[in-house]
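Dear Dr. K.,

Following up on our conversation at the group meeting, I've run the structure prediction for Tyrosine kinase from Xenopus laevis. I'm pasting the input sequence below exactly as I used it, so you can double-check it against your construct before we proceed with anything downstream. Let me know if the numbering doesn't match what you have in your notebook.
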Amino acid sequence: FGMVYEGIAKDIIKGEPEVHVAVKTVNESASLRERIEFLNEASVMKSFSCHHVVRLIGVVSKGQPTLVIMGLMTHGDLKSYLRSLRPDAENNPGRPAPTLKEMIQMAAEISDGMAYLNAKKFVHRDLAARNCMVAEDYTVKIGDFGMTRDIYETDY
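The predicted structure tokens came back this morning:
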């Protein structure tokens, strides 16, 4: 769809003078369908408030490109993060591979995020390590809501 940039948002959240954010954009060459899907992801995220779900901070729809602002997940997606911890990985940050206890903690965080989405009557439909994000404090959060649907949306 587009690019993701790292930035600092100032005075966007009450009580937090600065917040490190990820800013997603949609390519100017994107089709109307792709633009709608991009905005749909933000629309889905706006009602979520869970420590184990990536936080939507805001949307800038005035002007081009449209921007979706989310909490920054410093360590990227879980799949890439875990691969980087392999001893033979070229991009190994010098951290050891996660212990069994740490992996169980990650699984519990993913489960908590999914239970939250279930309670909100949403189905993610694309849960994978590539769609789970790792925060600065190594908390794992559910992300990528492009495929998420309200389980009741077809009932009306």
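Two things stood out to me. The chain has one domain: 4-155. The beta strands are 4-13, 16-25, 56-60, 67-71, 122-123, 132-134, 140-142, 149-150.

Best regards,
J.T.
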